[in-house]
Amino acid sequence: MNTVCSKNEIIVALATPYGKSAIAIIRMSGKGSKELAEKFLKNKIKAGQIRYNVFTYGEFTENLMAAYFKAPKTYTGEDIVELYPHGNTLIIDTIIKALIAGGARAAERGEFTECAFKCGKLDLTECEALADIIDAETPEQLTYGNARFNGVKSLSDVEIALNRALSTIEAVIHYSDELEDGETDERLLEDVYKSIDKIAERLENEIKGYAGGRILKDGFKIALVGKPNVGKSTLLNALLGEDRAIVTNIAGTTRDTVDGSYIYKRRKFTVTDTAGLNENTRDEVEKIGIERTKAAAKSADAIIFVSESAKTDDLPKFDKPTITVINKSDSVSDVGADYKSATDGEKIKISAKYNINITALKERIYDLCPKEVGGICNHRQFDCVRRCLNAVNAAREESKKANGLELVAAALYEGYGAITELLGEAADEKVISSVFERFCVGK
């Protein structure tokens, strides 16, 4: 890791939302931030103190609070100055303009956090967790993001364990001739192989928990599928609690996918309304809609097959968990969250129009959510862990063979490379850039 941000410049940005507010926060980071701020401030600023000050730029004057935080014990690992003026856009723009005129540069998206990463204050998975904290829409997502950011679900222990295993193996390979007998080698390698088994178990658990982590972070995706005019759009509106989709008595009203989200028991669910399945249609637009229906079903975590009849012999085959609902059951009683009382066999009787048994359906959907939740929750993380596990398993196989110690080491080096890529130490610059592009300016 670098000890300073690679660009080694003073960067400045508004750290609070742009617009009117009681107080705004303008943040600067980089060597010389204190000196630059003091060109415009009436009083000197001291490390670790937030004090009243006056900012002057030509005829412009603003009474504000100012703070200075000295490197390396800062968020970015560099000197940081924060100014707290009134939240007026004219005031904000003038102060930032003055600082840029004085030698600072407007920060890019996520550049403060990128500096923290490059200074070794955060690893890449912690940066991703921070972005998820900012994007969180539910208490559950917020708790999960904080757990990952605080290292509760970190995989840095795998990096340490692989490093130790490799160090021991390298020592045995290069220095075993200096030992009096082979017993020491055997004891050392026995410990290494036990640690490799534990690493493999740890990675396997992460792979198992990946689906749960991804769904918790992004939301559980549901596709509403069925023939035209069975009430899919009405069901979408009922689940969301708002009129999101257009509803008419005309079959084929929905030609494209329409989606929306709701929160149930602290978890986010994204529902996609799709065009009705009508394989006999000659309408080209409707055919395109049906193809999009199939694509939505393929990318969903679960399918709700909507029918208006107890006979569902026309149920398509999906390789996803599927809930069949009999819609337009307007005369049945609402049973609240007790979906088992709303079922007819494996089918749930609902009335989307009159909001009957919608809570029961939500409870059934919630029941499908994965129970295991790991620390990895995006495709980049999953790919790194998968490659690391494959390499570790290869090392385990080589360890069973005679005279295969060099091959064990080679496999572990491959696994070590994957885990350091996960943490960002060996990640491609394009991958790193894509992580920080998720952030807003000022973070």
Task: Give a concise summary.
By secondary structure, the chain is of the alpha/beta class. Helices cover 43% and strands 17% of the residues.
Largest sheet: number of strands, sense, barrel closure? 7 strands, mixed
**Strand elements, count:** 15
> What's the N-to-C terminus distance?
20 Å
List low-pLDDT spans. Answer: 250-255
Discrete helix count:
13
Share of helical residues: 40-55%
Question: Strand order across the biggest sheet?
Answer: 10-11-9-12-13-15-14
Mean pLDDT metric: 88
Rg is 29 Å
Instruction: Tell me, briefly, the overall form.
Output: flat
Strand content: 15-25%
Secondary structure class reads: alpha/beta
Helix-strand pattern: EEEHEEEEHEHHHHHEHEEHEEEEHHHH
Explain how this protein is built.
By secondary structure, this protein is of the alpha/beta class. The chain contains 13 helices and 15 strands. The strands form 3 sheets. It has a 7-stranded mixed beta sheet with strand order 10-11-9-12-13-15-14, with helices on both faces. It has a 6-stranded mixed beta sheet with strand order 4-5-6-3-1-8. A hairpin with a 2-residue loop joins strand 4 and strand 5. Helix 5 packs antiparallel against helix 7 and helix 6 runs antiparallel to helix 7. About 1% of the residues have low confidence.
Question: How would you summarize the topology of this molecule?
Answer:
Elements: E1 11-14, E2 21-23, E3 26-29, H1 33-38, E4 50-57, E5 60-69, E6 80-84, E7 86-87, H2 89-101, E8 105-106, H3 111-118, H4 124-135, H5 139-149, H6 156-175, H7 183-218, E9 220-226, H8 232-240, E10 258-264, E11 267-273, H9 284-299, E12 302-307, E13 322-326, E14 343-344, E15 347-349, H10 358-367, H11 379-399, H12 405-423, H13 429-436
Parallel strand pairs: 1-8, 9-11, 9-12, 12-13, 13-15
Antiparallel strand pairs: 1-3, 2-7, 3-6, 4-5, 5-6, 10-11, 14-15
Helix pairs in contact: 4-5, 5-7, 6-7, 6-12, 7-11, 11-12
